[in-house]
Amino acid sequence: MSEICVIGAGAWGTGLAIVLGRKGTHHVRLWAHESDVCESITHQRVNEKFLPGRAIPDSVTASNNLAAVLEPLFAARAAPIERVLSSRYCRCLDTARIAFEGEPETFAPLDLLKTDATEKAAQLAAIVKEIRGYSGSDNLVMVTHLENIVALTGVAPREGEAVVVAPDGDGLRVLGRVTF
Predict the structure, then answer these.
(1) Where are the alpha helices (DSSP H) in the chain?
(2) What global pTM score does this model have?
(3) Rounded to whole angstroms, how far apart are CA atoms 3 and 92?
(4) Around Cβ 164, how many Cβ atoms within 10 Å?
(5) CA geometry: angle at 91 spanning 129 and 144, to 5°?
(6) How many Cα atoms within 13 Å fall on the side-chain side of residue 11?
(7) In this structure, are 86 and 157 located in the same domain?
(8) At 112, which CATH number?
(9) Which residue in 22, 42, 60, 97 has the most C-beta neighbors within 10 A?
(10) Is 45 in contact with 55 (CB distance < 8 Å)?
(11) Using alpha carbons only, what angle is made at residue 178 by residues 85 and 160, rounded to the nearest 5 degrees?
């Protein structure tokens, strides 16, 4: 049985999840922002808010925890991971714990960027230094905030997207983007 994630439980996302779930060959994980939508899907097997009257197959599960919905996709990619660093903020820590099945190391420079220009530059430099100094045999994963990623790479990833980088001169070069 394949794992499929649908991000967004509006009428379109729910409809897609129903079609995929009816095939019988997929376990569909549906992410909903609204907890009442998750409750309706879980307990009544219908999305009363956005697609009332349409039965949702048992092969579709709903959650408002994005990391839990995406976890099987990280596992399916089978990218060997040696070290996971995370911002100290709970959303990043929760994502790292669920997606990478373990306790991440907290790394303060991955916290939200400082507003003072000097502190912000030092914070970004510390992140680049950590990447540049990494010498493990498998991948280093850093879980941080959108504004940090944009400041480091110029890329604004969507939810569920990873940005793969390598050191390049004084900064980072984007090698690719992976959507989970």
Answers:
(1) 11-22, 35-44, 66-77, 90-100, 117-133, 146-153
(2) 0.62
(3) 23
(4) 13
(5) 20
(6) 4
(7) yes
(8) 3.40.50.1240
(9) 60
(10) yes
(11) 70
How far apart are the C-alpha atoms of 178 and 7, rounded to whole Å?
15
pLDDT of residue 84: 93
9 plus 98 within the same structural domain:
no
Q: How do residues 93-132 score in pLDDT, each as one tens digit?
A: 988 887 777 899 999 999 999 999 999 999 999 999 999 9
What's the mean per-residue pLDDT of the chain? 90
- The residues with which 26 forms a beta bridge, in sequence order, are 2
Residue ranges in the chain whose pLDDT is less than 70: 71, 73-79, 180
Q: Give a yes or no: residue 73 inside a domain.
A: no
What tokens appear for 34 in the block?
């609204």
Residue 15: which domain range? 2-64
**Contacts with 88 (C-beta within 8 Å, 6 or more apart), sequence order:** 106, 108, 110, 111
Residue that is last in its domain, among 64, 99, 116: 64
Count of the separate structural domains present in the chain: 2
Burial environment of residue 41 by CB neighbours within 10 A (0 to 12, 13 to 18, 19 or more): buried
